[in-house]
Amino acid sequence: FRSGIRFSLDLSVYYNDYHNLRATVPGKPFVVSMDSSPFLVLPYTLENYTDGQLYGLELASNWQITNFSRLQLAYTYMLPNLKNRTTPSEGLGYDLENPRHQISARLGFDLPRRFTLDFWWRYVDELGDLVDAYHTLDVRLGWKPTHGFEMALVGQNLIEDRHPEFTPEFFTTCASEIQRGGYIQLTWKF
User: pTM of the predicted model, to two decimals?
Assistant: First the structure.
């Protein structure tokens, strides 16, 4: 590397062992009549029927490109291996849903007159058949007029106007979606 360029790389490999995870267990369907109209009830209960492991790795780098610019890259890979303790053919829904791949890139600049400009792009892989993969972009413009005080203008989720990041645990609730937004941040350190 050229003089003045600083680079670091971090690799983490992990293994988690889980017991008694919550699973959605289908019950026996039955018919109920209400106001002379029959309808079919498909009951589900939440029970601790699942064991399993989660394997993964995280790779992160930090590169100080110049005295006024930096780049941070990160990649995460997760692989769950979950098993129903009773009968694997029941098709249970597991409570350990994670996107398999996540990628992040942050590019920051120290500008003249104590301004900073940061861009943060993220990619999150699909969550099974329930949530599609998505991209986000956040932009932050900060200004430090004095030591210990900072003002910032932040725009979040600028690529799409909204996107879901998870699914609700129960069938009768609606998934909330993360919306595009912005805010002003004031920080005073003393």
Answer: 0.77
